Amino acid sequence: MATDEGTVRVDVWIWSVRLTKTRALAAAACKAGHVRVNNERVKPAQAVRVGDEVRLRQEGFERIVEIKRVVRKRVGAPVAAECLFDKSPPPPPREEVVVVARRERGAGRPTKRERREMEQFRER
What we know:
The protein is of the alpha+beta class and 124 residues long. It has a domain at 2-86: RNA-binding S4 domain (Structural Genomics Hypothetical 15.5 Kd Protein In mrcA-pckA Intergenic Region, Chain A). Helices cover 27% and strands 23% of the residues. The chain has four helices and nine strands, in the order ββααββββββαβα. The strands form three sheets. The protein has a five-stranded antiparallel sheet. It has a two-stranded antiparallel ribbon with strand order 1-8. A two-stranded antiparallel sheet has the order 2-5. β3 and β4 (40-41) form a beta hairpin. α1 (10-16) crosses α2.
């Protein structure tokens, strides 16, 4: 149930607003030092309240959110968006699909057929 007052554990809140897929992942992130509340590393049981700034580092990208509403249970995406104010910098642009380079015939490593021909030439 959502409430606008009180406190809740940071791992529960991170999981409730869908910043992590599971509560276990949220707790593991806290234990690993990937979660900061008001710029201080926290343990999973650290209490958070409205107005706190939560920083979560995931996959080399840092999410910076401010708590607008405290929730204790996992909520849907539209409700989760109302519970936080996202201050994160925009993610870096995705790399475009890499074009697979094709080598010109005769360039690069020799093929198996070409290696056999070279071996036969050396034996002569």
